[in-house]
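Example 3.2
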Amino acid sequence: MTANPPGLNRNAATYSVIASSGLNAPGADFHGAVNIHIGPELANPLPSNHRNFDLGSVEAPYGRLPENVLGREGVLTALTQYNAPDQPRIQVLSGMGGVGKTTVALIAAERAKKAGVDVFWIQGGSAATVAAGLRHVALLAGAPVEHVALAWERGGRPAADLTWLHLASLDRPWLLVFDDADDLDTLSCPGAALADATGWVRPPAGKSRGVLITTRDGNERSWGSRITQFHRLEVLELDIAGHVLQELAPKAGNVDSARALAHRLGCLPLALHLAGNYLAAAQHDPLAEAQTFTEYIDALGDSPLLLDEATEGIHGDLRGVEERARRTISGTWELSLLLLEQQGMPHARDLLQLLSCFSSTAPLPSSLLDPATITALRMWPTEPSLRTIKRAFDGLQRFGLLKVDMHSAEPSYQIHRLVAEASFASLLAGPRKLQELWHSAADLIVAASARLGPPNDPTAWSSWQCLIPHWLVLMWRLPRPEVAVEDRLIVTFIWSVDAVSYLHFRGDYATAYELAEKSLEALSQLRESSGQEQNWAWAALLT
């Protein structure tokens, strides 16, 4: 197809902007290029920055799609059901990094394309890529090149108005996707707010088949209630996650071992694909650390960083650093933390690392994470305000790094186990920070234990039980001190005795023995390294 601005002689073009239609996928028929001819009457008056438009690609990266995508039919159906002509809504697909938002969007885009819909795919990672992509969309939708040049010279809402004017009048169905729009500011523009529907992103209009956003930011308040429909993407169900692994690496083991690895990976799609691709390649590599699902579980240990080995040795990937980081365990959540810092939440990273000192597989009860107690911890260079800590909690929740369960007997938080393990692994390179964070985590659990009833009081047992998994992990992770043992560490051991006592009173002797053994082993090592042989606390605890 060829678009020509009104009043221009297509045979008298001095130069042209030639762009792909944005509709081509591997194996599909190719549409014609769009030739936008600029006549001599426009060539000279326009400044040089208008002669060479910065056109962002609007091609969807269909090649990223795996052969089969499992477990997402529900959300795909929901995405299409909500595109009702009488109440058009922007579809916002949110979820933590690595949960598969881009994959779902690509499936929706591919299905739309096969149905004859024009697909415009915009990279939402920065304001520049959004503006460049929509400039391309405006031209493809038939906006005269001189109008585009003038609108983008003014910037902001005039450029957005021009784009949507021509999208609304487009004579064929279209789908607009903004992918990886984690910073919602990139989707607005000066003089507009997302909820106003006057910025870059607006509800579907004309013959649109939808406007779809993928983002890690799950804050629905930014969008208001009139123009959007929210869909939160979660990890896969265990059976489906196991099936994904078997499809990727069919020779790596049976159904049960695949399910076991899927459970170990928290059923996170990114982790499943990294592990599956690694094991598929390992069948031809005698030096691979693991060739079966069971061996992979053993090789992972307590650190998920082995997963990133599946990305090594890949050539021809010239995407930006941020784009490549999204495909790795070590990088994908780092992007979320960096964005939270840019948004004025510098405490979010340390807060996540603090929480990662506890068990990664058990909920964190709200009694353990009292914000007032957290603000008073010694780990902060300067004591933060209560509002600052609450904002850090809110930021981690918005980006899916921390989930809240309000339906249990006691409200609790949960970190995906790979997020917690990757966060804790980052501490191992800095022993001094690890020590301070461990002590701060110990201070939290001591404060929470002190607020409970006596360990022999059955009415307090449910609250004690919520803390036991975290007591076990803390004792196991106790770092060797670089300086003399502090009194607060001795207090931690004293309170661990109360935790053991609770387990004894309740009749859980096996766990009581496990916690007592971990505590005494750690205590003995500390006594030997500290040289504090005469301290009364050592004698009291060891007896």
